[in-house]
Specification:
The chain is of the alpha/beta class. It has helices spanning 16-26, 41-50, 66-77, 98-105, 109-117, 121-158; strands at residues 7-12, 29-33, 53-61, 82-88, 161-163, 168-170. The strands form 2 sheets. A 4-stranded parallel sheet has the order 2-1-3-4, with helices on both faces. Strands 5-6 form a two-stranded antiparallel sheet. Helix 1 links the parallel strand 1 (7-12) and strand 2. Helix 1 packs across helix 5 (109-117) and helix 2 (41-50) packs across helix 3. The longest helix has 38 residues, at 121-158. The chain is elongated. The chain starts with 6 loop residues before the first strand and ends with a strand. Residues 120-134 have low confidence and may be disordered.
C-alpha cells in the first residue's frame, strides 16, 4: 500500500505492481485488495471519505468483476463519488506476451495513467449515468409495486356484484 491524495487505486490480483508504478507518478493512494469476496467495506468506506476518485484495477473482465462489486457498495453508501473501473474488455484478446496484452488493454503503468488523466467528460457522464440508471430502476420498481396494488383493487371491484333483491353488494 501507498498513501497519496485525491485518487485511490484499488488493485485486485497481480496488477498491484502496475498500480504502484502509476501511483508514484500520480501521487495516488494504492490499496491491495487481497480478496474480492467478501469486500473489505471498512477500508472502502475510509477510502470513500478521503478520496474523491476511486479507481479499481483488475486483471479480469470489467463486467460483473471485482470493480462492479466495489461500485455497487459505493453507490449504496457514497453516491457522490467518481469511480473508474479498469480491467479487461469483454472481447477476445489476441495471443501475445503478457506485457503486450496488458498494454493493449491499458492495464500497464502508462495505460493506467493515461486513462486516469484522460478521463473525458463522457467517462464522468457514464459514472453519473450509473447513479441515474439506479435511481430510474428504483422508481420503476416502486411504480411496479404501486400498480400491483391498484390491480388487486380493480380485481376486487370486478368481483363485486349487486344483489338486485336486497340492493346490496355481493361477493
Amino acid at each position: 500500500t501507498r498513501q497519496g491524495k485525491d485518487i485511490a487505486l484499488i488493485a485486485f490480483g497481480i496488477l498491484h505492481n502496475e498500480a504502484m508504478a502509476a501511483a508514484e507518478q500520480l501521487n495516488a493512494t494504492v490499496v491491495d485488495m487481497r480478496f474480492a469476496k467478501p469486500l473489505d467495506t471498512e477500508l472502502l468506506t475510509i477510502l470513500s471519505d478521503t478520496h474523491p476518485l476511486l479507481v479499481t484495477i483488475e486483471d479480469g473482465v470489467i463486467i460483473n468483476g471485482a470493480g462492479a462489486g466495489v461500485e455497487a457498495y459505493i453507490r449504496r453508501t457514497h453516491q457522490h463519488l467518481d469511480i473508474l473501473k479498469l480491467g479487461l474488455p469483454d472481447q477476445f484478446i489476441h495471443h501475445q506476451s503478457r506485457a503486450e496484452q496488458l498494454s493493449r488493454c491499458g492495464l500497464d503503468c502508462a495505460g493506467i495513467i493515461k486513462q486516469i488523466e484522460g478521463r473525458s467528460e463522457s467517462t464522468r457522464l457514464n459514472s453519473s449515468h450509473t447513479v441515474i440508471s439506479y435511481a430510474v430502476f428504483c422508481l420503476k420498481k416502486k411504480k411496479k409495486k404501486n400498480t400491483k396494488h391498484k390491480k388487486k383493487k380493480k380485481r376486487y371491484k370486478k368481483n363485486l356484484r349487486y344483489d338486485t333483491t336486497t340492493k346490496k353488494k355481493k361477493y
